[in-house]
Amino acid sequence: VTIGDATSVALPIPGGFVDVQMAPVEIRDTFTTMVPPSNRYLAGFVLPEATKRPADGVFKPLERYMLAQTFKQAENVNVSRVEFNEVKEQVATSMDQMLKEKKDEVNERLKKLADEGQTEQVELTEPLLLGTFLNQENAICSAMVMKARMPDGKGGSHERVIACGMSIMRVKERILYLYVYGHYTDEAALNWVKDTSKKWVADVLAVNK
């Protein structure tokens, strides 16, 4: 992927996943819709079964998926180690507000598309922060759970709990966001999100030395 005007960053595909570009357009469009206006979409990954179009045309919620993004305002900015430490400190002190703002941005975008008839109305609830699970020189990872409220096709709605691992990284002096999502059913599902986030971070850092 390319961050900013010319910084090329190698982004290894996580094991067991495929590029979302292999999926139907409806899923590809969902990925770009999920990106808040303050960020830029870089890449997305899904499980192989998500690349098949359902025979009945009804798409089921994705069980697991991943996204890579960058922060638009900083995509052409060289970020030093000292500056990245400041970013990590800011994450630790203002994560609640940052997530609320991004959640509101995404919900506003989802509502606009629903009003235009381009997608069904989906709403994200306030994320519940579960703390930082990785903090190293060039990366910090935090876990959270949230609910996605969506139509049930019968005039009502249903909720689905989603676990998320959000990683903020410094790669080639650029800021990179990695998101790992999984349907939250139990502690094992949350641990999968954390372990997968750690491995993806390690793989990205290893191939971009």
How would you characterize the overall build of this protein?
It is a single chain. The protein is α+β, with helices and mostly antiparallel strands and 209 residues long. It has three helices and ten strands; from the N terminus they run βββαββαβββββα. The protein has helices at residues 25-33, 81-115, 187-207; strands spanning 2-3, 7-8, 18-19, 39-46, 64-71, 123-124, 128-136, 139-151, 157-171, 174-183. Strands 3, 4, 5, 6, 7, 8, 9 and 10 form an eight-stranded antiparallel beta sheet that branches. The two termini are 15 Å apart. Mean pLDDT is 84; it is low at 116-122.
Span of the ends, CA to CA: 15 Å
User: SSE order, as H and E?
Assistant: EEEHEEHEEEEEH
Number of strands: 10
Helix content: 25-40%
Q: What number is the mean pLDDT?
A: 84
What is the percentage of strand-forming residues?
A: 25-35%
Shape: globular
User: Could you name the ranges where pLDDT drops below 50 across 5 or more consecutive residues?
Assistant: 116-122
**Class inferred from helices and paired strands:** alpha+beta
Radius of gyration equals: 17 Å
Count of DSSP H/I helices: 3
* Major β-sheet profile: 8 strands, antiparallel
